[in-house]
Fold this protein.
Amino acid sequence: MSHLETALERRRKYLAGEFTLRDTVDRYLETIEKNRHLNAFVRVNAEGARAHAAEIDARRAAGKPLGPLAGVVVALKDNICQKGQIVSCASKILANFESPYDATVVEKIQAADGVVIGQTNMDEFAMGSSTENSAFGPALNPVNPEYVSGGSSGGSAVAVAAGMADISLGSDTGGSIRQPASFCGVVGLKPTYGRVSRYGLVAFASSLDQIGPFGRSVADTALMLSVISGEDPGDSTCVPAAVPDYVAGLDSDVAKLRIGLPEECFGEGLDPEVKDAINAVLDKLRADGHETVPVHLRMTDYAIATYYIIATAEASSNLARYDGVRYGVRSPRADALEDMYLHTRSEGFGAEVKRRIMLGTYVLSAGYYDAYYKKAQQVRRLIRREYDKAFESVDILLTPTTPTPAFRLGEKADDPLQMYLSDIYTVTVNLAGTCALSMPCGTSSSGMPIGLQLIGQPFKESELLAMAHKVEGML
Amino acid sequence: MEFEAVIGLEVHAQLLTESKIFTPSSARFGGDPNTQTDPVVLGLPGVLPVLNRRAVDFAMKMALATNSRITPLNTFARKHYFYPDLPKGYQISQFDLPLCTGGYIEIDLEEGGRKKIGLTRIHMEEDAGKSIHDANLAGEDTLVDLNRSGVPLIEIVSEPDIRSAREAYQYLSELKQIVTYLEICDGNMEEGSLRCDANISIRPVGESAFGVKTEVKNMNSFRNVERAINYEIERQTRMVLDGERIVQETLLWDANAGVARTMRSKEEAHDYRYFPEPDLLPLEISTAWIEEVRATLPELPRARRERLAKQYGIPEYDAEVLCATRDLADYYEEAAKHCGDPKLVSNWIMSDVLRILNEQKIDIGTFSISPQRLAGLINLILDDTISSKIAKAVFEDMLTSPEEARAIVEAKGLVQISDSGELEALIDQILADNPNQVEQFRSGKDKLFGFFVGQVMKATSGQANPQMVNDILRKKL
């Protein structure tokens, strides 16, 4: 995908007056149309994007100051609220829900002169690892449309990979940014929990969800992170930590680092081609003077179980509001109160969402809470402690993003457990609450991209991005 | 066999904050349906709660007023159930780390003495909206009004320390008085800003184990709480005496029929699936914060009753009536401050002022006679300027006039005649005009004394000093 310009390049050219944003939007709309088969977008706001672009062009022409995203076209995952737009989470139950408010990140993007072009496809309510759980059908991998784009933010990865937007936003609850970034060959960043406001992100699992950017370069994700980060009085879990200039931080000299290699992420189940690609990067890093050290994240064995208890418990609660009473689609078969709930939710939610609501309801039930939810929270604390401990001896962790490159459409659709395992290297990061990114590091023999994951210390996105930027330069 | 009742009350009090507990939208009562809402209140996708610290201040006042132990690290929890007036499908409440535990409320027993009713806990939560099933408004449908949704509540859970419906009434009255003194809740049960559920069981006197309890809901007045509890105690007693088993269930009180009806059995009880609210951080309550709130506490009703009785030398009964509300007690103290006879002030307030408030259906805050003006009126009696009887008439005038009592008395020439020379001359004249009555009185018809007094008052339009009239008449007759 390297033939496409990065957002930063486009921004530089735009500021230099090489093109108008109004024309850019039209060109991107054409690209979206041409790539319709990839099903990356569920909604395109052509009129809104053109109008906003023209307005920014006018300001440029008048010599007025422009924001850090001027010249950049942005796509939003369909679970991030934009005022006046339908936000459906790729679900039938919200097919008609028009948001009356902007998510904090959308306000920030617009204030920074980013033009939002549309909403991207996703697994319904961000539950899935292939975007096959979308009510709109799967988003396909632009490298080879017989392969999945990954998920749940598949559409956002495809949009950036195929040049339908410069930067996109996704949300990452257990790997939903990093895994599709890896499958589609782009950079995907999951910030530290609390770095970016969740206000206006339709909740899946509140203690794990975090919004983050996709870009065609590490620098592009840094650019977007600088815009969307920071304290928000509307989100109590958003941390009031200063926001550094992540782009400026990229060229800061990366000292010789101690890179931790969690042995649990290099063992059974890892595709040899992925392993080779990662090893090739490690060789270059060592040649560059960095030290690699094996570390243990022994709790990885329990990560998927822990994740699926906590995430489903929170999801069963967060999705209780979709009852057909105030908004969204109400079943026409709803005659009495209980029927309204039953039919609306049975018809409105897809199979995977229902599976997780039932799981989550079960683990929170009286008599099961201690054995499941409480236990999972205890394991989660152990996972956090393990990360803290690892970071006492290393600066950063490096793993493959996923055990295999993108799989074929339908390959795992009937086997939820196999599907869940594709997040094995990514979920612990959400449980620990820290930051990580996936970046391309090679190609499989079948031509599919391979991703490597760098895991940083909490709120040290600057260091993480600087390291990734350095690796990017080596490849 | 003799039985005793074991009763615990769960009281919900709506806090009088400007805005809702998790969003800035207005928390005021009233307004057209669904006008006091915003995306958070409506539970729209993507919204998040942010705690209103003012609501915590209010809740802490109650914690301190009931001598509770404040939990240094509070957590919020989600309580799940489906209902159309519960927008998110869960209520944000508190579960294992509530605001406070272990306090008490002291009540006066009717048989004399006092009793401490223990408080298990007080926790904060958000109110739900209202479902309107009224056929006149909604026809066959149900309408939902979310104005109330998100209004801050505290739930005050008592220990099972209450032994009779009367004690429950006393407890509730004391609780209401405390929240209104604290100005954190208006205490209105009819409007639902104070709500009470009762857990009731009975057991043989002397038994320490608890019987099977039932929960009674929907008692929307103080009187109905008493009635419903008495009803349920009688029902349970009858069942036990008839050899039937009491089943754990929730009952709804029907005030019109005077019966409690089964709402749901134990099997139908909700599993609320509580878990820690991930959208809110644990709430740290520092000692400094506690002290800051403590400094704002007013004198509480019990302390004030005791002080008033002692400081002003008035009977306990008077103090209790005068301390019914903070405003009334303030009114009394302000009037007493400007007047030489605190008991006379108390009499005037308890009889005349309260009568007018009752007739006009107003609060003391909007009463037209200021405490200073009332004191001025009473002082005119004390310095013999007017009689009590004239004072009553002046009081009526003052209700519609901004004038001071003295100005009214002077303008109307109501000043009491206390000139003994003037009175003696007048009485001499009256006695001379009524020789027959004088004759009859002197031959033993004592009742005629009143006739002479009446004649004097008539001649002076009631302004003669009654004590002096009595004295002079006695002397001359």
User: Anything to note?
Assistant: The radius of gyration of chain A is 21 Å.
